[in-house]
Write a structure and sequence with these properties.
Blueprint: H1 6-21, E1 24-25, H2 26-33, H3 37-49, E2 53-59, E3 67-72, E4 78-84, E5 88-95, E6 100-107, H4 115-128, E7 135-138, E8 150-157, E9 160-161, E10 168-171, E11 176-180, H5 181-189, E12 193-197, H6 198-209, E13 218-223, E14 227-233, E15 236-237, H7 268-272, H8 274-284, H9 288-310, E16 314-318, H10 325-339, E17 348-351, H11 358-368, H12 379-389
Parallel strand pairs: 4-8, 8-12, 13-16, 16-17
Antiparallel strand pairs: 1-3, 2-3, 4-5, 5-6, 6-7, 9-10, 10-11, 13-14, 14-15
Helix pairs in contact: 1-3, 2-3, 4-5, 6-11, 8-9, 9-10
The chain binds zinc ion.
Residues 250, 260, 262, 264, 267, 269 line the site of zinc ion.
């Protein structure tokens, strides 16, 4: 799988389909990918030989022989995901099938001149198993036998990244301008490194393990310190011309509003981000219920605007802020429904329970998704990840 011949693309397409819709029979694979049964038999035999696919249970059939289903082998690979915040790092070790093997954290100062070295130190401490300078949050499940091969490092940042495989970061909330995160980590760690906006990374995880299994068009909204969105259109995360798509927090709400972290006035985030909420609470003296309900209404109107533009099948709300969702919902629900375009008012808006390691799991999914990415959004780094998956060093 080192080159990019037709067979490579077909193998990737098989992995992509199994990675996004779950186990399928050979007949279903042939039908979905418009391949001959002989081609599917040959390619799946090769992938099983690489240890990437396994035969699962028999699928009951109406008449005829029950079909053997094929699925991805979760232990074929793992990735380390890192979430960078303004004051700490969270790191997780995740298997190809999404199972979390361990989670760690450490304090982090993005304004330090040594910030990138400290980031690399933390990753190295987890990769090497030394644990130096990082605190384990969940004890790594010992598991049986060998740990799966490490395919690469995914990094999620609250900012924009023009090219995942290059990994140069602009993030005002971290004080980072053109920070060469990917380059520095690759040089230190000698591993494939992908860097992406954290909300886009969450959407990559949803595409792989969540809504992407049943929907090709969906929106991910996040609330917490910042407010963000990721747009999954036709099965892919829409990144825009410079990787900056989805800056939902900077939708203008009121030109006379408070100054936002981006420098403009009256952005959505200045009202409903956690700092804006705290300020509103302190300035108004209103009870929490009312502050959250008003923020929910502001968020609901803005969300309706985005839904009207993008036309998703479903909306998923994630992020630290969802812990208070019952308070937000009082204002959010009526506001969003009132502004949705006719015919969309029954759209499903689902709020998921939030796990503190979810951001870092999204970052790991950047790496874990590359074997299934026929379009090669991860570029050269994606090729290196695939080479590590089948155990060949290019
Ligand atoms: Zn702004």
């Amino acid at each position: 799988m080192a080159g990019t011949d037709r067979g490579d693309l077909t193998r990737t397409a098989i992995l992509a389909l199994l990675g996004t819709v779950g186990p399928l029979s050979r007949t279903e694979l042939a039908r979905e990918l418009d391949l001959s049964p002989a081609t599917v038999t040959q390619l799946t035999r090769e992938l099983m030989g690489y240890g990437m696919l396994e035969e699962l249970d028999l699928k009951p059939s109406r008449g005829g022989r029950p079909a053997q289903r094929l699925g991805l082998v979760g232990s074929a690979g793992r990735a380390l995901g890192v979430k960078v915040t303004a004051d700490h790092l969270v790191l997780v070790d995740v298997r190809l099938d999404g199972e979390v093997l361990g989670a760690w954290e450490c304090a982090f100062d993005p304004s330090s001149p040594e910030a990138l070295d400290r980031l690399a130190d933390a990753v190295e401490a987890v990769v090497s198993g030394s644990g130096r300078g990082v605190t384990a949050r969940t004890s790594a499940s010992a598991g049986h036998g060998q740990a799966p091969p490490l395919l690469g490092i995914g990094v999620g940042v609250p900012g924009s990244v023009e090219d995942q495989a290059v990994g140069t970061v602009n993030a005002p909330t971290l004080g980072w301008q053109a920070m060469p995160v990917g380059e520095r980590l690759r040089r230190r760690l000698k591993l494939p490194v992908l860097v992406e906006n954290d909300v886009n990374a969450l959407a990559a995880a949803e595409r792989l393990y969540g809504r992407g299994r049943t929907h090709r068009d969906f929106l991910v909204l996040t609330i917490g310190r910042g407010v963000g969105a990721a747009i999954v259109a036709d099965g892919r995360v829409y990144r825009g011309a410079r990787g900056g798509a989805g800056e939902f927090g900077h939708v203008p709400v009121d030109p006379a509003g408070p100054v936002c972290g981006c420098g403009a006035r009256g952005c959505l985030e200045a009202y409903v981000g956690s700092a804006g909420l705290l300020a509103a609470r302190a300035a108004s003296g209103k009870p929490d219920e009312q502050v959250f309900a008003e923020a929910g209404a502001v968020l609901g109107r803005a969300a309706a605007g985005l839904i009207n533009v993008v036309d998703p099948e479903v909306v998923v709300v994630l992020g630290e802020g969802t812990a208070d969702w019952p308070l937000w919902q009082v204002g959010f629900d009526p506001a969003v429904r009132a502004q949705l375009y006719p015919g969309r008012r029954d759209i499903s808006i689902e709020v998921e329970s939030w796990d503190d390691t979810s951001w870092a799991q999204g970052a790991a999914a950047l790496v874990l998704a590359t074997p299934f990415d026929a379009a090669g959004a991860a570029g050269e780094q994606g090729r290196l990840v695939r080479a590590r998956l089948i155990g060949t060093t290019p």
